[in-house]
Amino acid sequence: MKPTLVLVGRPNVGKSTLFNRMTRSRDAIVADIPGLTRDRHYGHGRMGDKPYLVVDTGGFEPTVTEGILHEMARQTRQAIDEADLVLFIVDGRTGLTPQDKIIAEQLRKTGRKILLVVNKTEGMASSVVTAEFHELGLGDPCAVSAVHGDNVNELVELALLDFPQPEEDETKDKHPKIAIVGRPNVGKSTLVNTLLGEERVIAFDQPGTTRNSIYIDFERNGRPYTLIDTAGLRRRGKVLETIEKFSVVKTLQAVEDANVVVLVLDASSEISDQDAHIAGFILEAGRALVLAINKWDGLDNYQRDTIKSEIARKLPFLLNFAKFHYISALRGTGIKGLLPSIDAAYAAATAQLSTPKLTRILMAAVEKQPPPRAGVSRPKLRYAHQGGSNPPLIVIHGNALDHVSSTYQRYLENTFRTAFQLEGTPLRVEFKTGRNPYAGKSPAPLSEAEAKRAHRRRRFGRKKYG
Description:
The chain is α/β, with parallel strands linked by helices. It folds into 3 domains: about 5-160, P-loop containing nucleotide triphosphate hydrolases (Rossmann fold, 3-Layer(aba) Sandwich); about 175-350, Rossmann fold; about 350-465, GMP Synthetase, Chain A, domain 3, CATH 3.30.300. The protein contains 14 helices and 15 strands. β11 (about 290-295), α9 (about 300-315) and β12 (about 325) form a beta-alpha-beta unit. GTPase that plays an essential role in the late steps of ribosome biogenesis.
């Protein structure tokens, strides 16, 4: 399971800038205004050699007892409870402040692992700028510049040093793990109970009934499965209750731990932007996906057509590979085809694709539709092989592949998906350009005879002296 790194510090020390740097994104709003970040922000770490989750928090002012700053401090404390490692960010240009000392004392009491990070140190000697922060008693400070990226990669490697490298093949379990996810009160626990055939988890008509991810082993038709019932993922601005905040990271970790995710949508309400955000997170995690549109039995034909139109409009990126099931978890209708779709998605996610067949399909695709030119040259795709599974990764080798367009990449993804019947799983294509063996080398000098021949060609033309 991915470790969780939580960024903590007083306002305006550069936590959101570091978050964006570690996730290689612009997801966190950054400005020179204290207190801009209020809600916790989760993201996938994309620096370093190991996978991890990053949590950005608002400015931590633990001594405030009321108002929005108090709520922000409460959220930060909850984020610290979720952390495997806390990155305590301080400002190297401002220097050590009394509030830094208060936060350090609060962090020591939590018992969490702490790594002290001195930010905004560009153009400054590390030994000088970090000297006064040894007073906090949190070990050797790490000097970085989140804005310029100085030493951030070294920081990530240091933070992840004590966490083991996860297995590359996440399909080592011999049976599928199925995470049931969605917004609160869409019927996730009811669906789990229906699949199990018993009242295994609490199902109640109140959002937030499930607090933690619950792993349940069961068997169907002689095949073992593990169901993961998760807490509902609200929009961040709606996550107000402390216990429910703790559930968010557990749900995200459950998605990471699953082989197949069943995204449950509520047909009795409109398809929301939050549904699209959850689907996007599942795809970013590379998990196979099945959609269950619940509470379908209570709709008339007009309402059903409306929901289908909303799905096509708000979730178009799922239409080309994910299976859709219109169900009633409470009455058990439409459930019969759910497990076969899960089995198919799991098989597709863990499929072994032979190199000869991949290369033949690639050559046929290029012959049918060559990649567009990039300047004077055209990318040359030579062969393909499988680079991983869950999700399937196809690595294509050739020349000038840096210029392959995203449109042509999607064309290849769809071609491979159709040829191998990969239904229910994302598919990733990666390009690797071969190294030019003559790059950087000066040509060998011509012999005297070759030089005379080249001179005659330039002077009199190629035909007579070729």
